[in-house]
UniProtKB/TrEMBL annotation:
<feature type="binding site">
    <location>
        <position position="71"/>
    </location>
    <ligand>
        <name>Mg(2+)</name>
    </ligand>
</feature>
<feature type="compositionally biased region" description="Polar residues">
    <location>
        <begin position="1"/>
        <end position="12"/>
    </location>
</feature>
<keyword id="KW-0460">Magnesium</keyword>
<feature type="binding site">
    <location>
        <position position="140"/>
    </location>
    <ligand>
        <name>3-methyl-2-oxobutanoate</name>
    </ligand>
</feature>
<feature type="binding site">
    <location>
        <position position="110"/>
    </location>
    <ligand>
        <name>Mg(2+)</name>
    </ligand>
</feature>
<comment type="subunit">
    <text>Homodecamer; pentamer of dimers.</text>
</comment>
<feature type="region of interest" description="Disordered">
    <location>
        <begin position="1"/>
        <end position="23"/>
    </location>
</feature>
<keyword id="KW-0489">Methyltransferase</keyword>
<dbReference type="GO" id="GO:0003864">
    <property type="term" value="F:3-methyl-2-oxobutanoate hydroxymethyltransferase activity"/>
</dbReference>
<comment type="function">
    <text>Catalyzes the reversible reaction in which hydroxymethyl group from 5,10-methylenetetrahydrofolate is transferred onto alpha-ketoisovalerate to form ketopantoate.</text>
</comment>
<protein>
    <recommendedName>
        <fullName>3-methyl-2-oxobutanoate hydroxymethyltransferase</fullName>
        <ecNumber>2.1.2.11</ecNumber>
    </recommendedName>
</protein>
<dbReference type="InterPro" id="IPR040442">
    <property type="entry name" value="Pyrv_kinase-like_dom_sf"/>
</dbReference>
<dbReference type="InterPro" id="IPR015813">
    <property type="entry name" value="Pyrv/PenolPyrv_kinase-like_dom"/>
</dbReference>
<dbReference type="GO" id="GO:0000287">
    <property type="term" value="F:magnesium ion binding"/>
</dbReference>
<dbReference type="GO" id="GO:0005737">
    <property type="term" value="C:cytoplasm"/>
</dbReference>
<dbReference type="InterPro" id="IPR003700">
    <property type="entry name" value="Pantoate_hydroxy_MeTrfase"/>
</dbReference>
<feature type="active site" description="Proton acceptor">
    <location>
        <position position="208"/>
    </location>
</feature>
Length: 291
């Protein structure tokens, strides 16, 4: 017998949106069970990165339901060239700040390069630090088939895992920053990776820089939500690096980025206006002085 999801059963009430991940009524902390329910409802949802409490509080108040403390903090927040040098100590500190700055969003902490590749036991030790010391609700790690044993042990141990396949930036020295899944062999590998992380128990999977048609196929195949970045419009969720989408990243940004503001110009202009005031003696004025 064919299983009907709740959303498809004839007696199900039409969704009134009150449970929606974005725009819903609930103010309690979102959990991975809420994420699973959103896929059942066929609901799309947004995810942004965050690396500090202040920024995270802005996105939390804006209703962003899931935030990723990405190891993109390496190049976007800490001044490294890539994500490769980022340490677990750094991710723990940044993740704790993001958890403190939020009350509703599910916070996902990225496991940095070198903190899980040795095997499942190392992965569990690293993920446990993010859960206990930072208070994240889930962790993310890179790799499909190659990481399935790590995912299995974390999930068995009670730590929800978001997987990440396609372009995996921690492997930049081996694969560069190139579109993944082009051609029959690479597409078949991506499908195997997607199946492997779902079977290992991941609650969601990031698809980075893969052809839109392939990302759509993976999204239809899986019962867990797909989170796209440079993966077309058919994934269940979309993620962007916050400094990219707000125009704060220095230099080139990937072409899949949509820029929603120009904070680099706003902040630069404000800094210049302050400097001019100081040099010209027009700040502080009487109202900014104490006597
Ligand atoms: N600022 C920033 N934004 C990101 O999205 C991001 C990071 N940093 N750091 C971690 C990873 C690395 N990511 C990257 C890095 C480079 C490309 C890139 O150069 N893409 C090329 C296309 C390459 C191709 O067509 O094969 C581009 O022009 O978009 C993409 C994603 C995504 N993540
Ligand atoms: C780009 C996202 C998926 C990420 O892994 C990060 O920001 O580190
Ligand atoms: Mg990352």
């Amino acid at each position: 017998m064919t299983q009907l999801s709740a959303a498809q059963t004839p007696q199900a009430k039409p969704s009134d949106g009150s449970k929606a991940l974005y725009g819903g009524k609930s103010t309690r902390r979102i959990t991975v069970r809420d994420i699973a329910a959103a896929k059942e409802r066929g609901e799309k949802w947004p995810m942004l990165t965050a690396y500090d409490a202040m920024t995270a509080s802005v996105f939390d108040e804006a209703g962003i339901p899931v935030m990723l403390v990405g190891d993109s903090a390496g190049n976007c927040h800490l001044g490294y060239d890539t994500t490769v040098p980022v340490t677990l100590d750094e991710m723990t500190m940044l993740s704790a700040a993001v958890v403190r700055g939020t009350s509703r969003a599910l916070i996902v902490g990225d496991l940095p390069f070198g903190s899980y590749q040795e095997g499942p036991v190392q992965a569990l030790r690293s993920a446990t630090r993010l859960v206990k010391e930072a208070g994240v609700g889930a962790v993310k790690l890179e790799g499909g088939e190659r990481s399935h044993r790590q995912i299995e042990l974390l999930v068995e141990s009670g730590i929800p895992v978001m997987a990440h396949i396609g372009l995996t930036p921690q492997s930049v020295n081996a694969m560069g920053y190139r579109v993944q899944g082009r051609g029959e062999e690479a597409a078949a590998q991506l499908m195997r990776d997607a199946k492997a992380v779902q079977d290992a128990g991941a609650f969601a999977v990031v698809l980075e820089l893969v052809p839109a048609e392939l990302a759509a196929e993976v999204t239809r195949m899986l019962h867990i939500p797909t989170v796209g970045i440079g993966a077309g419009a058919q994934t269940d969720a979309q993620v962007l690096v916050w400094t990219d989408m707000l125009g704060l990243t220095a230099g080139r940004v990937p072409k899949f980025v949509k820029q929603y503001a120009d904070l680099r110009a706003v902040m630069g202009d404000a800094a210049k206006a302050f400097a001019e005031d100081v040099v010209g003696g027009t700040f502080p004025r009487e109202e900014h002085s104490v006597h």
